[in-house]
Amino acid sequence: MNLFNFKNRNCKIIAEVGQLHDGNIKNAHNIIKKLAKTRVDAIKFQTHYAEEESTLKEPWRIKFSKKDKTRYDYWKRMEFTPEQWLKLKKHCEKYNIEFLSSPFSKKAVDVLNKIGIKYFKLASGEINNPFLIKNIILSKKPVLISTGMSNFSEIDKIVKIFKRKKTKFSLLQCTSKYPCGAKDLGLNNIEKFKKRYNCLTGFSDHSGNLFASLAAISMNADFIEVHVTYSKNHFSPDSSSSLTFKEVAELVKGRDYISEIINNPINKNKL
């Protein structure tokens, strides 16, 4: 599968696992198995390495984990080895699903490159991280860029960098609120990005419901990224802003229905 190849108007749906696996590799594989049944196009993880991102003295921003004394301890528990990442990638490929991940350090970029990742996802909080961006660009892989923490001046800057380096990219409208209410979704930016930057565009959703993504698909989004959870009350930083596996399956069905409408315009004079 080529995520950046659009033979027809068929939005690609990406399921974001985030930290739902809670550092348990068996759980991560189980999530892939469950998502395969939903028929998503891609499954995205986050590649964290505590020593690259945090310090032993870094305080919690929001204390959500009872298992971990410090933020460093939490990220340490979320780590997987390169061999484990490779197995997760192969597991996705078994179902003809694209494997994606957001790196948060040079080490993460190197690990993901080593296992043969085809695309990168740049998280909203890293759009002003020139060191990380430089290493992603050096990989010569297409990049999906979330814009949840960026204004147009900052987006202009990163687009200029990616175009100068001839790196294929897509911009995802995103609002970094968890969960995000309807008034703050900003779906108007999907078309605005398309016209302003002449690129593929999409929507990274934190609403916690189906409606926002279905609306984005009807508004010409090329990509939809949704967080996934077992339930809205499940222990995970993103559960309240995520879709359940059942909801993800419904989203795929909705995408297919909307795509059929879009791909079959009706000429009223020929009825």
Can you walk me through this structure?
The protein is of the alpha/beta class and 271 residues long. It is globular and about 70 Å long. The mean pLDDT is 92. Helix 1 (25-36) packs parallel to helix 4 (82-94) and helix 9 packs parallel to helix 10. It contains 10 helices and 9 strands. Strands 1, 2, 3, 4, 5, 6, 7, 8 and 9 form a 9-stranded parallel beta sheet that branches. 39% of the residues are buried. The N and C termini lie far apart (37 Å).
Largest sheet: 9 strands, parallel
Ends apart, CA distance between termini: 37 Å
Mean pLDDT over the residues: 92
Rg is 18 Å
Unreliable residue runs:
none
Task: Name the helix and strand elements from N-terminus to C-terminus, one letter apiece.
Answer: EHEHHHEHEHEHEHEHEEH
Notable features of this structure?
271 residues; nine-stranded parallel beta sheet; alpha/beta; globular
Give a brief outline of the structure.
Helix content is 38%, strand content 17%.
Strand and helix map with partners:
Blueprint: E1 12-18, H1 25-36, E2 42-47, H2 50-53, H3 71-77, H4 82-94, E3 98-103, H5 106-114, E4 120-122, H6 130-138, E5 143-146, H7 152-164, E6 169-174, H8 188-197, E7 200-205, H9 210-218, E8 223-229, E9 243-244, H10 245-262
Helix pairs in contact: 1-4, 9-10
